[in-house]
Design brief:
247 residues; Rossmann fold; 12 helices
Length: 247
Amino acid sequence: MGNNNESIFESLRNNAMFWVGRPVETFNNLPKTIVILGPARSGTSIVAGALHHLGVFMGERSVKPVFEDTKLSSAFESKSWKNVKGILGEYNQKYPIWGYKRPNVLHDIQRLDEFLNLGDASADECDKYNQRFREFHSSLRNPVYILTFKDVFSISNRNRISMNTDLIRQMENALAYYSRLISIIKAIDFNALFVSSPKIVEEKEAFIEQLVHLCGISPTQEQLNAAISFITPNPKEYLIHTNIVRK
């Protein structure tokens, strides 16, 4: 009876993760690109940093504590799909697996010059938005998405503290981001790991194990220890680095 109760308990636990898509075993030995999506302050840096410590290449100009590749981000900011594709091709040639994190990438994709006229003129904005993302998605090599979720008040209050922004406006922005992300999830068939950022801090060993599995990598024990140690609540370096109020 005791073992049965324990089994039931384990089946009811929320381990902060949910996989959507094909079984990982069907592609985890293939070259791939890991794309981290989530609004700013939703935990994208935790995921990107964990991948970095596991030995996954996160970009030529990706540095702690946020681990965003400014080389690829600058290409997106140039609004040139040609520039973006050039870096995607360069990284694909050099690395069998690599990752990218940029909270604003959903917005950036919509502004790429070659994408602006995509979609039927009669289509609503949501359809056009999804078609542009689909074009980006189809250009990636075996993409795997990691989607970070955190409650909108927590996200917005962090922005209020660090960026001196309006709380209510930030809550509206976070809700709009998640609404767009859910629309994409419904419109496009892709492989994605949903993660609750606050929970993975509590379940970090299981989270690191899942990252290793979906990436199909074999990190050293030192890398595993570094990735686990990296995941901490309210990391001091990150809070200082992302704060503009007192700079």
